[in-house]
Design goal:
alpha/beta, five-stranded parallel β-sheet, 11 helices, 2 domains, Rossmann fold
Length: 289
């Protein structure tokens, strides 16, 4: 199948990927597929070049979500590179390995032990897409939810909803949450880190803020403190914490740090919309552009 025949993928859209291999033709073909699905793609022709690219991106706070590595890349190549990525927790990059038949048994064992996703060559497009979804951390439930909710969002979004700010560094979580909220008529702006959230709130009024607690630059707690400080006593924008912790102490910390309410991940659509509806006051003003 040609890349021109593919449609954007609501799950993969916006996810960063590094393609590693010494074949220019293969890198170009794979880049075409991934770009057609909406992914942000870079390439490297060797293991050392890939490590430099991965580490530079991580140092800049924009790590690659996925590295697509051809096992036949010359040394230090596929196996060595996969091991280096797995051993470097700072990178935060998942690996998809492209293997030939002679390498398959060894790589199946490697995948079982290390959680690496394996795709056999010649590459079939749908198998590649499924592997990338798995590597990006998307469960089957997430894929179904995004596919189900996103079309509704386009139809239901309207001028009657409040304006929300979503601060979330995970591309999949952002996409699913925006689809849920847009389907209920809310206008949603998104930022990727806490520092950007503080800047966005300083620039305009929001009816409520959904704040991931763990983000780069400033985490959700630090961003909330900065927002409360710049608001002063004149207004208080409702801030809903999105936290991976469901323990009582996690909830208490959210409230103590200045957030108004919280939701534990994974977030259900019903719970999200109900809490946002309670947080957003009826709009009696004309919204500024």
């Amino acid at each position: 199948m040609r890349a021109s025949q593919l449609s954007p993928d609501v799950v993969l859209d916006g996810i960063t990927a590094l393609i590693v291999g010494d074949s220019t033709t293969q890198r170009s073909a794979l880049a075409g597929y991934l770009t057609a699905w909406g992914m942000a793609v870079s390439t490297a022709d060797s293991g050392p070049a890939a490590l430099v690219t991965l580490r530079t991106a991580a140092d800049q706070g924009r790590p690659f979500a996925v590295a697509l590595i051809d096992m036949s890349t010359p040394g230090p190549g596929g196996a060595e590179l996969q091991g280096a990525v797995a051993d470097d927790a700072v990178l935060g990059t998942r690996v998809v390995l492209l293997t030939g038949s002679a390498q398959q048994c060894d790589q199946d064992r490697r995948a079982d032990v290390e959680g690496v996703t394996v795709v056999s060559k010649p590459v079939h497009v749908e198998q590649l897409r499924a592997a990338l979804r798995i590597a990006s951390g998307t469960s089957a439930a997430d894929v179904g939810l995004a596919a189900m909710v996103a079309p509704t969002a386009v139809l239901a979004s309207g001028p009657h909803g409040g304006r929300l700010l979503l601060a979330e560094d995970n591309a999949i979580n952002r996409k699913v949450a925006v689809a849920m909220l847009s389907s209920a008529g809310y206008h949603v702006d998104t930022v990727f880190d806490g520092a950007a959230a503080v800047q966005a709130v300083a620039a305009r009024h929001y009816d409520a803020i959904l704040m991931d607690c763990q983000m780069p630059e400033l985490n959700g707690y630090e961003a909330t403190a900065a927002i409360r400080a710049q608001e002063g006593s004149g207004r208080r924008t409702p801030i809903i914490a999105l936290t991976a912790g469901a323990r009582l102490e996690d909830q208490e910390r959210c409230l103590a740090e200045g957030m108004d309410s919280y939701l534990a991940k994974p977030v259900s659509k019903d719970a999200l919309l109900a809490l946002v509806a309670r947080s957003v006051k009826p709009r009696q003003h004309v919204e500024a552009c």
